Amino acid sequence: MLKTIKPKVTLVGAGPGDPDLLTLKAVKALAEANVVLYDALANDEILAHAPKNAIRIFVGKKIGNHAYTQDEINQLTVDNALTYGNVVRLKGGDPFIFGRGSEEIEFVESFGIPTFVVPGISSVVAVPASQGISITKRGVSESFWAITGTTSDRKLSSDVALAAQSSATVVILMGMHKLPQIINLFQKENKGNLPVAIIQNGTTAEEKVGVGTVDSILDIVKEQRLSSPAIIVLGEVVRESNKLKGFYEEFLSKEIVR
């Protein structure tokens, strides 16, 4: 007797990179998967939670190298669900924050396939937190912006210019290739001394951190050879981090001497 295939797709957030930051619900979803379609994860150890006989398909996107187009990924998800049943679509961070998760869910549901969502710990908050940066802090920052540095048409988001005018913490993802433009916008608002942290490969063993100010961060990026994937944090809360406080105390003393 043939076993009836019951298609199901679970959209799972893999978190910021550290495999220990995967949620228990994500682990349970992976353990029941027949197929895992996964992005370019910061840590492949996460895939070990899927059964050994589960089909694993890499569908990630890297700069200049896309394994599949978004339309192809959508169709692969549906085809595998109809063929094998339980599909986990595994995406870095949280799939609903710059992850196109809602688009994928809508496509799958248009075929009448049940869908479920397991939120992930977003790098927007987790990566700064790993360096002791609280993106909101009483008396320092009442709110924060989370912005994609590069829009779908490969341009800098117009929201960055608006964010530069505010007193809020600004967290920019996918913005390293637009960093000179970002810095220019903050300089136009006379925020040259605003603290900046750039965290590359956050929460992983390969994590690198560069700290400075709006006026100095481009030189620091060059000196430390920082690159993507990285998160850019601009705001007074960076100075408040116990891990980074020493740098800013030294920086201020040098400014006073001048």
UniProtKB/TrEMBL annotation:
Keyword Methyltransferase carried by entry: yes
Top-level division of the source organism's lineage: Bacteria
InterPro entries assigned to the protein according to its UniProt record, in alphabetical order: 4pyrrol_Mease (IPR000878), 4pyrrol_Methylase_sf (IPR035996), 4pyrrole_Mease_sub1 (IPR014777), 4pyrrole_Mease_sub2 (IPR014776), CobA/CysG_C (IPR006366), Siro_Cobalamin_biosynth (IPR050161), Uropor_MeTrfase_CS (IPR003043)
Pfam families: TP_methylase
One record GO biological process: siroheme biosynthetic process
Sorted UniProt keywords: Methyltransferase, Porphyrin biosynthesis, S-adenosyl-L-methionine, Transferase
Domain Tetrapyrrole methylase: 8-216
Keyword DNA damage included in the entry's annotation: no
Enzyme class (EC, first level): transferase
GO molecular function, one term: uroporphyrin-III C-methyltransferase activity
EC number: 2.1.1.107
Biochemical pathway: Porphyrin-containing compound metabolism; siroheme biosynthesis; precorrin-2 from uroporphyrinogen III: step 1/1
PANTHER family: S-ADENOSYL-L-METHIONINE-DEPENDENT UROPORPHYRINOGEN III METHYLTRANSFERASE, CHLOROPLASTIC (PTHR45790:SF3), SIROHEME SYNTHASE-RELATED (PTHR45790)
Family to which the UniProt record says this protein belongs: Belongs to the precorrin methyltransferase family.
Protein name: uroporphyrinogen-III C-methyltransferase
Species of origin: Flavobacterium cupreum
Record lineage: Bacteria, Pseudomonadati, Bacteroidota, Flavobacteriia, Flavobacteriales
